[in-house]
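Worked example

This section walks through a single chain of length 338. The input is the sequence exactly as stored; nothing has been trimmed or padded.
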Amino acid sequence: MKSLKYPKKVELADITVRDGFQHEEKWIPTPAKLWLAEELILAGYRRIEVTNLGNPKGMPQFADAEELLRQIRASKRLAKVVGDVELTAITIRERAVERAIELKKQGVGPDRILMMASTSATHMKKNSGLDHTEYWAEAERAIAKAHDAGIKVNGTVSTIWGCPMEGPTKLEDAVTFTKRWLEIGADDIEHADHDGSAPPNKVYDYYSMILDAIPDVSKHVAHFHVTRGWGLANVLAALQAGIVRYESTLGGIGGQPANFFDGFPVSGTGRYYYQDPNNVGLVCTEDLVVMLDEMGIETGIDVDRILNAGRMNERIVGRRLRSETIKSGRIPKKATGF
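Given that input, the structure is written out below as tokens.
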């Protein structure tokens, strides 16, 4: 009998507190962000993304970036484990990288930062304000500075499976960008389906190409959006290709930074794929951990604690989210009666 082939152990990261909340159109209080970060860590996550160190004028959700980092570091609930946790902050531009370095010197900064290059020239310019030549030069400088400060750097590759402004893109270009990131010193690579353009067959094709080119599975992180409902199908395709690192958000929230916040317009990242604020989001953490658990894949995550965190996250944001498993629960392992 034939069976699916996939890794028996994976490494999960949760990015709710940053990527999830960046799309919310209301302020999420710092204590709520802290509570969720604590719950994720206490549930077993050792990699979480917690804030954006860019200019909060365009993304006011992260006006508390420094305070949140300080509170996580000082959390009494996390006293025994926080030293084993890798906290990531987004730093698209060099000025934000320098901010991360300064916070690191103060003992509260992130352990890892993220910079991003899009294979699409139009998306690259829109997202960063720089063209490819300018951005690669800035990223190389920033990576050297971060490493000198003891901070890891993730190099994200975006628009792998398509661009909302330019249309189709070439998978081969993303392989080239991955190699470029590693050549200039990036510690790992996030391969981002940033808007739900990736169908499962092309996910498998791409990650097969990536692992042929760079076989070290520790270097690759899969990041899927669910705009078209393909998130978990894409996780399965990536598993079959051999990818072992994944990230997700509670309730599947997240996506593009809100361009309307607490009753007034803000710049965000514009309208280019923000037509419906409810039609965005990432792979759902709760459903992902339940699915992997049912498949017998080791995650190290306390599934029930994550389901509880997901229920609380719905109360924090004030609406029903994408998770099916916080409603239906895990599959019973014994007869329940009638």
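What to look for: The chain has one domain: 11-324.
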